[in-house]
Amino acid sequence: MSEETLSNLLKEDRRFEPPPAIAENANLKADAYERAAADREAFWAEQAERLDWDTKWDRVLDWDDPPFAKWFVGGKLNASYNCVDRHVEAGRGDKVALHWVGEPVDDTRDITYAQLKDEVSRAANALTELGVGTGDRVAIYLPMIPEAVVAMLACARIGAPHTVVFGGFSADALASRLEDCQAKVVITSDGGYRRGAPSALKPAVDEARAKTASNGHTVEKVLVVRRTGQDVDWDDDVDVWWHDAVDGASADHTPEAFDSEHPLYVMYTSGTTGKPKGILHTTGGYLTGCSYTHWGVFDLKRDTDVYWCSADIGWVTGHSYMVYGPLANGATQVMYEGTPDSPERGRWWQIIQDYGVTIFYTAPTAIRSFMKQGREIPDKYDMSSLRILGSVGEPINPEAYVWYRHVIGGDRTPVVDTWWQTETGAIMISPLPGVTAGKPGSAMTPIPGVSAEVVDEEGTPVPNGSGGYLVLTEPWPSMLRTIWGDDERFRDTYWSRFSKQGYYFAGDGAKKDEDGDIWVLGRVDDVMNVSGHRLSTTEIESALVSHPKVAEAAVVGAKDEDTGQAVCAFVILRDEAGDGGEDIVKELRQHVRKEIGPIATPRQIMVVPELPKTRSGKIMRRLLRDVAEHREVGDVTTLADSSVMDLISSGIDSGK
Ligand code: ATP
Ligand code: MG
């Protein structure tokens, strides 16, 4: 990641000014940067005031023993109270908290804040009844149904850290997480709907429970929501129906105030780079970070906006921007159970039209899959309610950004490209919709209160126009506190690379352009070295996606006798491009050559029907590297769909 990194991204010169109407009324204006820079801790304290505290803190930040931070020291609060009760107490109990949309058409529920409060209180009482106490871990393995939100808030209410495991994960993946955090109770359902058909969940819990038992860990109770009505095996000593335990429980529950540093949840990372890490978030700082960023970066107007984040609840985005951020802010939001293409491809746009969604937050992978299908589908819907669009999960290719803004946002909507991680808890680098002139492909600048830099090997900031390592130079309230049960790994993973400066190193590479704006280039582990030139996967992928026939691309470096590493690309074509024609590979190689330079020309380009992705839509390049280097494919347990690798491998074996 040095100056010799070749660049096509920085040639991007499209700019999108904030619309005057948004700029004038923006929650965060330009002065926030100055105020935060003048006194960072005072700025964060001001943000913490957004919450209701039972006992106020006596110290904003304790950084006496880095990298172990304590924020809002001595403060006490209840996260669930902040997300639910206080809105009811303020007279907004009838406001819709969740417009829940089930996958089967017409299976919908609107849940007000008052109803949510009752349901969360009942669930909290039921969990207590099942023996869950403060500090006990509860695993949540559910589809995208309201009970998932209720379960999380019920855990928070009684101080039992939750760990949400993506419903698409296998029994093995679930078992390893249950063991790692020693979960006492699992909340699951009989099944969920996936592309029009019920698919079972409970059997995976049974299998995972048996597996953990053989390793000496006992899951005491399994609370089962009835969603699909399918048959389930039942163990009377362990299994309890949600409707038996929760529906009859009292709706009165007094939330206890917990220490600001009380553990709120453990979330395992995607595992794109290795074994998933159990990231620990605590209460006061985390909730402050989510609430502030959700309000500021999305410019949330509580009484008029309808917000929708399409992320799964089993991903950190589902935690910060579907549960804790929006609910702490008293927002009205959409929650959708299913896939974007069920029962038909316009389902998301239909939902935006039906509910008048004004703020929409999704991932580049989804945008690229819509680009693949063509604009005729979204063009059929009225999406004029949208005013702000967000992107998260990967660098967004400039072409995808412009398509998103143009086709979905009708050219009215700022796009906030938000860079953050499970570890950071909340958005760190992003444009502000009322302030920033957006550049497609750039996450722009750290938000007010956050200090980020791009540094070289020695930890010195690189000059504008150069690339390096993306670091956070100051602690922030929603930062991870440790890796669950492994302080050593916490230090090693994030704080050892630049220990001299005390910087948090995120694992990503980035570039600063001539204006000092940040372009995230993906993980430093993915950077290729071709004949001594360092090439970023993101840049070559963006070059490929800028070709009119290409919808998605994944690039990896494979060992090469002559050049050290060679560029291997996997591409998905747009539907309208058919099979791309005979010369497609030649055409694409030529295109990359022209866009970046001869050194970046892929040695090999494979047209594939799908790419291996995590639940959050990230491409798992390490698996593609295995394919490109003709190795056996590694651990696929965190793939959203593990059959994808067979599809790719078989296509390649048959020479397609
Ligand atoms: P693991 O650490 O186990 O590999 P993961 O890093 O994929 O898992 P997440 O915490 O969900 O799990 O992902 C964070 C990463 O996603 C960031 O480090 C970055 O690489 C990428 N990312 C997220 N948002 C953006 C963005 N707006 N632009 C560029 N990259 C992004
Ligand atoms: Mg990571």
TrEMBL record:
The keyword Transport is annotated on this UniProt entry: no
Sequence positions bearing N6-acetyllysine: K618
Keywords: Acetylation, ATP-binding, Ligase, Magnesium, Metal-binding, Nucleotide-binding
Molecular functions (GO terms): ligase activity
UniProt keyword Membrane present: no
Domain AMP-dependent synthetase/ligase: 90-476
Pfam family, one: ACAS_N
AMP-binding enzyme C-terminal domain segment(s): 539-618
Record-listed E.C. numbers: 6.2.1.1
Residues covered by the Acetyl-coenzyme A synthetase N-terminal domain: 31-83
Post-translational modification: Acetylated. Deacetylation by the SIR2-homolog deacetylase activates the enzyme.
Binding, Mg(2+): V545, H547, V550
Binding site for CoA: R194, R195, G196, A197, T317, S531, R593
Cofactor(s) needed by this chain: Mg(2+)
InterPro entries referenced in this protein's UniProt entry, alphabetically: Ac_CoA_lig, ACAS_N, AMP-bd_C, AMP-bd_C_sf, AMP-binding_CS, AMP-dep_synth/lig_dom, ANL_N_sf
Similarity comment: Belongs to the ATP-dependent AMP-binding enzyme family.
Described function: Catalyzes the conversion of acetate into acetyl-CoA (AcCoA), an essential intermediate at the junction of anabolic and catabolic pathways. AcsA undergoes a two-step reaction. In the first half reaction, AcsA combines acetate with ATP to form acetyl-adenylate (AcAMP) intermediate. In the second half reaction, it can then transfer the acetyl group from AcAMP to the sulfhydryl group of CoA, forming the product AcCoA.
Family annotation (NCBIfam families): Ac_CoA_lig_AcsA, PRK00174.1
Name used for this protein in its record: Acetyl-coenzyme A synthetase
Organism in which the protein naturally occurs: Nocardioides aquiterrae
